[in-house]
Every structure is written in structure tokens, then in C-alpha cells.
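In this supplementary section we document a worked example of the pipeline. Step one takes a protein sequence of length 172 as its only input; no multiple sequence alignment statistics are reported here. Step two produces a three-dimensional model, which step three serialises into C-alpha cells for compact storage. The input and output of this example are shown verbatim.
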Amino acid sequence: MKKIAALCLISLFAFGASYAQEQNGKVIDTTAILKELREKEKNLNIREADLNAKEARLNAMEQDLLARENDIKKIRDEVSAQLKSLSEQQDKELDNLVKVYSTSKPKSVANIITTMNIDTAVSIFSRMTPNVAGKILNELGKSNPEYASKMAERLTYQPVFGDEKAKRAQQK
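The serialised model returned by step three reads:
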């Protein structure tokens, strides 16, 4: 039995030695794999840091754009308010002119109207009562028939968006 036990021990040592050699080869492979994994981890950490930096820059740019958008909205609102105020002021001034011209002599008003921008004149006429506007147009027709014709056309024609006739009428 001693022989069998010794034989078993010898076999066990031989098996252990061959197993150790086999495992040694694996340790070398594992070391190479571990080294490669560490290199990849290092590269991934670098890429992650780059991505984090880019994300931070994008967030900063987004905040800057949002701030600029808010500034633009404020400016737009201020401009709209100013335009509204100017429009209201212009309406008041036109109403005052309508009152003055409505009480003036039609011939005098006709002479003044011919020197005005036709759009302004149309705005004034459109605010007048038909009776007063008719008297002034009558006098305007006597002194400047072409201007009176354009005026009457503008007063009766309501342009439609994209209408070629309206564009031509406004260009005259």
C-alpha cells in the first residue's frame, strides 16, 4: 500500500506541476488582458473627461443662448411698446388734422393735401365724414385730377394680401 500511496503522491506532484505550468501560462495571459483592460479604462476615462468638458461647455452655451433669448424678448417687447405708443400718438395727430381739415375750407385743404404723402392723405380722408371728404375731393379734382383719382382709388379699394393690383396701386 505504501507503493500505491507513493505512486499517488508522485502522480499528484506530476499533475500539480503540469497544472502549475498550465496556470502560469494563464497568469501571463491574464496579466496581458489586465494590462489591456487598464489601458482601455484609461482611454475611457480620458474620453469621459472630454465628454464632460464638452457637456459643460454646451450647458454654458445653452444658458448664454437662453439669456440672449430673454434679452431679445425684452427688447422686442420694449420696441413693440414704443411702436404702439408712436402709433397711438400718430393716431391722435391724424385725428387732430382731421378736425382741423374738416373745419377748414375744402379748397385750402385740397391744396395742402396734394403736397402730402398719399398714404397720409388716405389716412386722413378715411377718418373724415363722407360729406367733408367729398367736398375736399371735389376741390382736389378741380386742382389736381390725377391725384384725386389716385386718392379715390385708394379710399375705395381695400387691398388683399398678395394682390398684384394692390401692389401696383400702392406703387403709384
